[in-house]
Amino acid sequence: MATHPIITRRTLLQGLGTALALPMLEAMNPGTARAANAPAKAPVRMAFLYVANGKHMPDWRPAKEGALEELPPTLKPLEAHKKNMLVFSGLTLNGGRALGDGPGDHARSVASYLTGAHPKKTAGADITNGISVDQIAAGKIGSQTRFASLELGTEPSQKSGNCDSGYSCIYSSNLSWRTETSPMAKETDPRLVFDRLFGNKDESQEGKAKYLREQRKQSVLDFVRDDAEGLRRKLGATDQRKLDEYLYAIRDIEKRLHGSDQPAAAKAGSFPRPERKPSEFGDQVKLMMDLMALAFQTDSTRIITFMYTNDSSNRTYPHLEVKDGHHDLSHHGGNKEKQEKISRINKYHVTLLNHFADRLAAIREGESNMLDNSMVLYGSGIGDGDRHNHDDLPVIMLGRGGGTIQGGRYIRYKRDTPMTNLYLSMLDRMGAKSDRMADSTGPLTGLDS
């Protein structure tokens, strides 16, 4: 006799202004779990994390090709995930090169990073780029999830202006492109991402729920308590633990969001929200990464892009004892002191990446975990910030792509291997196969052996 699921993958815990999607549970497919001694196969996810201004390459690149034995200084924070990591060299963004257009490498590095295209040099409204890999995937499999994709960052997308030698600010502040002329603006406020993930789309209810959460310090979990308790009684011990861990993660994020700033003063008839994002860069990034993990865990989306900063960012890092601007330091001119400071910033960014990797690895999915079932690509569209080169880019991948990628290696590809070849391989593993993308010459080989 067939065993029917207690709940479906689309089950929501609902309450006032709230709709919580659930993580993957054995109860969603008990027949499969009993037959194969495992829950239904987890989907493959992809996340693209972009950092500005290139890297200090001597501290980035491993000493030798093959098995990752000793990680270079910049990648040391990822030691615990070494076996799940691929380090690439030789990958190139030809579209990021000048190709007769002169200066503007920072704008081109972002615009071409996920598209492989060469953006039209303009500071006006006549922008032209290419379709990005995340949006190719979203167009093919995005209908399977609540959100086709999520576009996130820490600094707002810009709609106009001249940001880099005649290139529009649109190019240097937008990573994701739905069409050749339509970038996907990113969300930079973790609280608004939280509301988007856990709101029920009823504006009147959402307003009241926000008021209760911010002014009376209630949790979204208060609004779904009855649903959650009713579900919990139907679940086995393993699923109960998964549900408890998931709800704990939500509450932890809520506490951090509420602590980021005090709520604005209440006004009659309004439901105010806190006025500012977390003031500390690292806190903002970690909150975003935890929300990204929840979005994957609930299958709200399988495709995310995240920009640490817009390109040419001149952010300072005083907690690292780096008071110089990041972009200024990247033009180091061979100065050892500046190179050391750049390396310090690079390592800090990787430390934040490790937070995301830890979060994914901690979420169990059958005999594996969420990091095993993901492809997390991290890197920059510029190699050395002083040279502004777009070949031999600093790019790594974390995760096993659902068991189709063998990590723990440093792979050198021949010079000028298109970055878009890697994207074809990723699309195939996502179930969004594409035969060609921009300057691609075929799927990148060697990921699985």
Q: Given this structure, which CATH class of the domain at 45-188 and 280-429 is correct?
A: Alpha Beta
Largest sheet strand order: 4-16-5-15-14-3-11-6
CATH architecture of the domain at 45-188 and 280-429: 3-Layer(aba) Sandwich
Gyration radius, in Å: 22 Å
Helix content: 25-40%
Protein structure class: alpha/beta
In DSSP terms (H or I, runs of 4 or more residues), the helix count works out at 13
CATH topology of the domain at 45-188 and 280-429: Alkaline Phosphatase, subunit A
What is the distance, rounded to the nearest whole angstrom, between the alpha carbons of the first and last residues? Answer: 41 Å
Number of strands: 16
The biggest beta sheet, please? 8 strands, mixed
Give the SSE order as H and E letters: EEHEEEHHEEEHEEHHHHHHEHHEEEEEH
Could you name the ranges where pLDDT drops below 50 across 5 or more consecutive residues?
A: 33-39, 261-275
What spatial form do the alpha-carbon principal axes imply? globular
Q: Give the amount of beta strand, in percent.
A: 5-15%
Mean pLDDT, rounded to whole units? 90
